[in-house]
Design brief:
The chain is 35% helix and 14% strand. By secondary structure, the chain is an alpha+beta fold. The chain has one domain. Strands 1-3-2 form a three-stranded antiparallel β-sheet. Helix 1 (28-42) runs antiparallel to helix 4. The radius of gyration is 16 Å and the shape is elongated.
Amino acid sequence: MTTMEVGTTDILDIPPEYYGDFAEDYNHKAIREQYHEVVQSRLPEGVYLTRSGIIIVELEAKDKLQNIDWDQLAEETSGELEEIIQRNDLTAERGPASRHER
């Protein structure tokens, strides 16, 4: 299998508005890893996305890369991203009121 790096994408860069005023209350590493798994599962066979946003493609799958609309993919996975963010809320065990106790 021969592969080549073909570019980068910022699809794994989570927009700050997903976190609201409490960005420090989330496990960002876990969110990025879990969202990476969701995005990778939607990519065609032979196309790989590294956790740093580098796109790698098998030479035999290079034509499939042209059919990927990264903006559409981000929109299609936004619901899953929101669920991932909620699961990685570090204050969830203490309850939402704990944010206001600071």
